[in-house]
Amino acid sequence: MQPSTQPEKTEKSEETKPAEPTTPKKDRWAFVHEVEKLPGGEYVLDCLQCGLCAGTCPTRFAMDYSPIQIMKMIQMGMREEVLSSSTIWVCSSCYSCYSRCPRGVDITTLMMSLRNLAIKEKVAVKKEVKPKFHKTFYEVVKKYGRMHEPEILIKILKKSDLNELYRNAKFGWRLWRKGRLQIRPTKISNHAEILAILEKTAKEEAQ
Amino acid sequence: MSEEPRIGVFICHCGGNISDTVDVAHVKEVIGSLEHVKSAETFEYMCSNPGQEMIKKAIDEHKLNRVVVASCSPRMHLDTFRQAIKSAGLNPYLLEMVNIREHCSWIHDDKAKATGKTAALIRGAVERARFLEPLTPKSLKVTESVLVIGGGIAGIYSALELADKGYQVYMVERNPSIGGHMSQLSKTFPTFDCSACILTPKMVSVSQHPNIKIITNAEPIAVKGSPGNYQVDIKIKPRYVNLEKCTACGECAKKCPVKKPSKFEEGLAQEKAIYIPFKQAIPNCYTIDKDYCLFLTRGICRICERFCKGEAIDFEQKEEIISLDVGAIIACTGYNLIDSKLFGQYSYGFHPDVVTNLQFERLMLQGLHKPSNGEAPKKVAFILCVGSRSTATNACEYCCKIGCMNAIKHALLLDKSVPGAEPWIFYTDIRAHGKGYEEFYAKARDHHTTFIRGRVAEVIPKGNSLIVKAEDTVLGKQIEEPFDLVVLSPALVPNVGTKELAEMLGIDLGPDSFFLEVHHKLRGVETKREGIFIAGCAQGPKDVRETTMESMATASKVATFLGKGKISVSPEVAFLVPDRCNLCGICIEQCPTKAIKKGKKEVTIDPISCVGCGICVPVCPKEAIDLKHSTEAQLIAQIEGVSKEGDTPPKVIAFIEKMTAYGSADLGGQSRRGYTSQVRLIGVPSTGRLGLKHLLHAFASGADGVIFVEGDDSLFKEDQLRDRVIQLKKDLGKFGIQSLRIQSITTTIPQYEKITSLFDAFVERISKLGPIPKEKREELEKYLKGEQIATQHTT
């Protein structure tokens, strides 16, 4: 553990344009304790900064901070930087880091918890597609009781990126011909049960 | 006790330390009026010369035959006063000490209460003193020979040291040759000494030393006896070659038709079924591997026999068991590398070019090449912390301690054997903690070794090369680099059979499954069983330098143990009343040192192995066991003395284990950590000494609550104590005494806060419960006098 390397690290990886590194906060432990209470954050102080998570991460290239830096930032109490980082949204939940972490830190679950926290605190980054995706996904599932890919895609892309939508439409055509895609949405037979589940989780989440 | 006890009580002021809080004169008056007390004195400093003279004079004058000294902790001055009464002609065991400083004056402010408590404590001691008996430590002749289990560098060094001191040493080695892992190494860090060049002369010295007998291909199978006089059975496996006749000419191996992977070469080379592990092997003799030999597996061949000129091949050899008499045993069974196949992401076992550091040593000595195609590797990755410093399943939490320096050594050696080669070291933290190690690390940095701080995520075989994927945590960048060879530094784990050996020897394993020493800092080579010592990597990972130094320390400890020719054994041991024993054998299971043995017609307690913990005493249903210097009579008298009469309820008795827990309470006193004066401490060998009877006596004679305080490292383990207390609570329930009146706790020496705060909380609880009613006490007393009472009560 080398606290002094932290500012250096972010400085050198400037090409990914991270937020300006800031000095550790005085109330750093407050954030650490907050994270410790989140699912997956129990062992955040056990992290020995070996870097295995970052080395193993398949979506590391798209992150502004690597998972190991996120862990260190949590330990240093850098709340805003952590919650506004793209890392927590880029994580694809493949669980490679958790399965290999020598200290058993459940990084993947922690990333999900941090996403929730970021949304709750309304610091979810605008440029990130993922918060929107999550929202849309939820809406669609609520509507039909199951996924419907074309609708999710159209809802996300129709306002922001029509070119992308067009490219995806061509891809969707190919999928449809192979029978891998349904154009028309179908509802599941017992839709009410799904709604009950969603309602209950939302209620628990609110508590 | 034929003679009438004449007790002298000496109360120390301790220069105000005691007398400022305790009315010493009043205590003297109270105690002086007790039965059997012939003299009661106070003095400014009892431990000083005039104080001791005073005791001697009083012994002379009043014809005293028991002495009670009330002063500081017996941990401080027990020996001082024992010597004093010894020089006055009394047996040292006729002294009883009362701790009225650490356990009373230093922790209480209320003078009246402290005085009352002091009087109670001394009264208990006086009562106990009535039953004290003279005891003499037993002395026992020891066998002046040593068994060294394991012939690695640790075994070799301790054997040589001891043999030079004149002891007969037996060295037992499981493999056909001594030498251990060190014989497999190329060079040693940080000096680049050739490992074989410094080891083999020592191996030769061992084989030629008149005081050392090497027994190879052998393992101990049973250990009997007691410290100083162990009998060890050794099983010698047949090697099918006559040790005396074999000249190691090698003719047999040339003709042998069977090939097998060589264990010495870590599977990187082949050898014949009749083999010698390495050229400089001691004893220099061939061995037949019975799992591969055609004759021993299928009954045909015997070619080696035909070609051996010395007629050394002997297929008639049978397994042999010999018995050795030794005074001490050194267990130095060494380590193994953890199986790297457990960590699949490194591709070990899937690709031949992923090797362990031990295999890399062999590759270097064979002439460095890639195992896959024999080419010289240009770019080599060294991966540290494989399976160590991890809490994952199958992995080890501790540091392997040698991986960093080993990898640095390899990086430097690589530069020499393959010019222009590129060593990359992937590390988590570089630990260069020894003399010259940091400089060695600096040297590697100078020699263009690439250090990447980051644990390797995976090794992916791709064609001829291996892709290593990791994060450079300093740059914050992910890297994927191709390498020719990947060298892993696996964790060090205890050798195969360490657990079985520990059970056989009756010693403990630590949480890391290595042998456990008595004290991490102060007694690093001794084990809980006297006469059994440990050395080298069997105690924990260490490098060659540390191993040799530890081995010499072990040898010195063994010499100290055996050097006097005899050992003095504490007389405070359990003894049996044979008439009462019904051979039920319950005590045998309870004994932590296996001192109790069952014969055909009797049970015997070995006074040498017995450590006097007293765990066996209360479990005996026939009350056939008693403990010297803490006999039933002495203990019960003390309990009654402490709890009878005097001051206000509630009265709480804390039974405190005499070593660790007592030390902890002493430390609390030294730190002036005040607690309630209602608690009186009675030292016992271990809380396992106590049974239902003692509690009933305590409650009958005035106590309202009882606490058991046990040391964390005691032989009476925490779960045993818990079980015992649960049982006692049930039993007390039958007498109508609430289970809340009894409590147990374990502590280490620095954790005095834990016990003192328990005392406060417990007394508060007992105050709420209120004192035990007088009628109940009378009932208990009646019961104790032999009258059964109806057991259905609810209070």
Could you characterize the architecture of this molecule?
The complex is a heterodimer of chains A (about 210) and B (about 800). Helix content of chain A is about 55%, strand content about 0%. Chain A is built from 12 helices and no strands. The two termini of chain A are about 35 Å apart. Chain A is globular, with a radius of gyration of 20 Å. Chain B has about 800 residues and is α/β, with parallel strands linked by helices. Chain B has 5 domains: about 140 residues, Response regulator (Rossmann fold); about 190 residues, 3-Layer(bba) Sandwich (FAD/NAD(P)-binding domain), CATH 3.50.50.60; about 80 residues, Alpha-Beta Plaits, CATH 3.30.70; about 160 residues, FAD/NAD(P)-binding domain; about 55 residues, Alpha-Beta Plaits (2-Layer Sandwich). In chain B, the strands form 13 sheets. Chain B has a 5-stranded parallel sheet with strand order 10-7-6-18-29. A 5-stranded parallel sheet of chain B has the order 20-27-21-22-23. The radius of gyration of chain B is 33 Å and the shape is elongated.
> Judging from the principal axes of the Cα atoms, what is the shape of chain B?
elongated
Residue runs with pLDDT of under 50 for 5 or more positions of chain A? 1-15
Largest protein interface, residues of each chain? A-B, 29 and 25 residues
The main β sheet of chain A shows up as:
none
| Unreliable stretches covering 5 or more consecutive residues of chain B | 787-795
Report the helical percentage of chain A. Answer: 55-70%
**How far is the N terminus from the C terminus of chain B?**
41 Å
- Helix/strand structural class of chain B: alpha/beta
Radius of gyration of chain B: 33 Å
Strand order, sheet with most strands of chain B: 10-7-6-18-29
First-last Cα distance of chain A:
36 Å
User: Which CATH-level-2 architecture of the largest domain in chain A?
Assistant: Orthogonal Bundle
The averaged pLDDT of chain B comes out at: 91
Mean pLDDT of chain A: 83
